[in-house]
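Please, structure for the following, as tokens.
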Amino acid sequence: MPLADPHPAPASLSIIIPMLNEAAGIQATLTRLQPLRASGVQLLVVDGGSTDASVALAAPLADAVLSSAPGRARQMNLGAQHAHAPALLFLHADTQLPPGEEQRAVIDLQKALAQHAWGRFDIQLAGRSHWLPVVASLMNLRSRISGIATGDQGIFVRRDTFCALGGFPNQPLMEDIELSKRLKAHSPPACLRQKVISSGRRWDEFGAWPTIRLMWRLRYRYWRGVSATQLAKEYRDAR
């Protein structure tokens, strides 16, 4: 049996997945990423205090499952602190890289980061609502015009740039919007047309148009200067 290399090649990409009570889907999400992990991609899961079996299910399928105070921004920042690679990809627990094209997506991401400091993928929403393709198209169009990305789109960034800008702001909502604004002020994003597949469960559960109206209202109010803490309360109350 050959001995393990005592000096393995450093990871070229670290994928960071924040998680909270995702037992229903985290195993499938991580299983799809195992070929990337086998090729040297570092896979970090950051748990925010799950009370289900999420941690036990994730542990065999990740390089590390880290424990964090709750809050997606805190979780992703902790993951970045433990990342070994010069490139970071923040992937939500209910989002997957293009099925069957994960290796290609990583190659294209790395090519994009050779020219850009950061970027994101286009998105496709999976769910029951017939409006989800329209919602996804509007998200992609808005992002391409505004240069602002959402976490559902799989934000990727050079680690040195992420650290220089202070990472995700420690706020309970809109952390992806705020990071995008900071990154955009640094340089324009790479907008990859490959589509990550993200769960449309919130649109299915609460209705497509009520959810669209809620999210646009919250983003407008954030743009007008309402605090993320207040908006997080409104979001919880609306749901």
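Confidence is low (pLDDT under 50) at residues 1-8. Strands lie at 14-19, 42-47, 64-67, 87-90, 95-96, 118-126, 155-158, 190-199.
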